[in-house]
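Write out this protein's structure.
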Amino acid sequence: MLVNCVAYQKGEKVADIRREEIGEYLKRPEAFVWVAMFEPDAAEMTEMQHQFGLHELAVEDASKGHQRPKIEEYGNSLFVVLHTVDLVEGTELDVGEVDIFVGPNYILSVRRHTKRGFSDVRARCETEPNLLQHGSGFVLYALMDSVVDRYFPVLDALSDEQERLEEAIFRGTLARSKVEALYDLKRKLMTVKHVVAPLLEAVGKLYGGRVPQVCMRSQEYFRDVYDHLGRIDQLIDGLRDMVTAAMNVTVSLIQLQENDVTKRLAAYAALVAVPTLIAGIYGMNFKQIPELEWAYGYPMALAVMAGIDFWLFRRFRRAGWL
C-alpha cells in the first residue's frame, strides 16, 4: 500500500502527488520524489519499477523480502536493505525489513514486517530545507540514521536484562531456568549482531573511497552513521562476552552446589554406616562372638556407636560438610 508520495524541489516540499504524476515531477530540474510504501503487492512493485526505472534484480529482492542487510549499486542508483529491530512484550525482538531504492531524483522506501513508519523522519527532513536540498542522498542518510538510532533502546533493554540476570545468579537458588534465560539473551544479541555487522561493512562504502554519485554531498553524514554502527557493534560484543561469562559462572555455581549436596549426603551416609557396621557384626549368627554373653555388651555397643558418630559429626561440621 502507498503511504506517501511527495515531490520536493530545492529542499522545499512542492506537493503530495498521485502515482500518475511521478513521471512529470521526475523531469523537473533540482527536484526529486520521495515515495513510501508498506508491504506492496507485485502489481504495485511493478508499477514503481516502470515509474523509476528500477533494476529487475533489486525489485525481485524487495518483492521477496528476507534479504541480508546490504547496499548494492546499479548504475547511478542504489538498492539498500536495512533491518529494523523493535521491542515487543518486554524484551522480545520484532525484526522487520526496509528496502530503499535511491536514484538522483527519487527515493522509494518499502517496509515489510514492521508497523513503525518513518513519518518522524519525513517531518525532520522537511524542517531542514538547507539539508534536504542535497537531494535523495540526504533522505537515505536520514532513513538509515533513524533505523540505526532505534537499535540503541533495544541494546539498553537487553543490557538491563543482563544486569537483572546477573543479580539473580547470586541470590536465591540456582536453577536451569536461569541458564536458559541467559542463553535466550545471547540469542537476542546474536539477532541484533546479524542486523548490524553486514550493515557496518556496507555503510563504509558510502563515505570513503569511490562514493556513489547520489551520496557525494552527504559523505560526512554517512560517516556519522558508520560511527554509530561501530559503537553498537562494540556494545553487542561486550554484552555477549558478559553473558557468556555469566553462563560460565552459573554452571560453575551449580556444580559447586551439587558438590555441596554430594558432601552432605556422604557425611550422612558415614554417620549411618558406623552403627550399621557394629550392629551387623553383632547380629551375625555365631555362638563364639566376644562379649556376646556380657551383661553390659548392649549398652556398650550403643555407647560406641554414639561416640563414633559424635566424633564424625564434629569432624564433618568442622570441614563444612554439614
